[in-house]
Write a structure and sequence with these properties.
Blueprint (H helix, E strand, L loop, with lengths): L6 E4 L3 E13 L2 E10 L4 E6 L3 H4 L2 E2 L6 H9 L10 H14 L2 H17 L4 H22 L3 H14 L5
Antiparallel strand pairs: 1-2, 1-5, 2-3, 3-4
Helix pairs in contact: 2-4, 3-4, 3-5, 4-5, 5-6
Amino acid sequence: MLSIGDRVVYPMHGAGIIESIEEQEIMGEVQSYYVLRIPFGNMRVLIPQAKASDIGLRTIIGADDISAVEKVLGGAPDLADGGNWNRRFNANMTKLKSGDIIAVAEVVRNLTLSDRVKKISSGERRLLDTAKHILASELALASERELAETEKWLQDLLKQNRAVS
């Protein structure tokens, strides 16, 4: 059971902090909700407690897990579906929806490196921007860094990846 102050990830939205637990009546039904404050964009999200695990809400990674993300970002891309952007887009969307930070890091790495070889589509560009936001928001909370500092660190790390030129 999650509690106030826990740092969590809400798939497709990013990381935030549970600021309260409230009862709300929505469509005639009273339920308990986690009130999640996502610092990026200062978004406030209500998540039904009863459905939190179904939605994929999870605690953020520990500081010691950051090196696993670094390793993924510095690794070789998985460009198995390199010729079919639609299949690649759907596979990447599935990874983002999983909420798994390693899968999100793979999306960021693969799309960034694909873009170096051949410019990615506008749909994939939006997907890459979303994935970067999700990744940076969790890494910022896990490392106790500011979001802007974390985004720069990610950008520098991706620039160093020479798996594809």
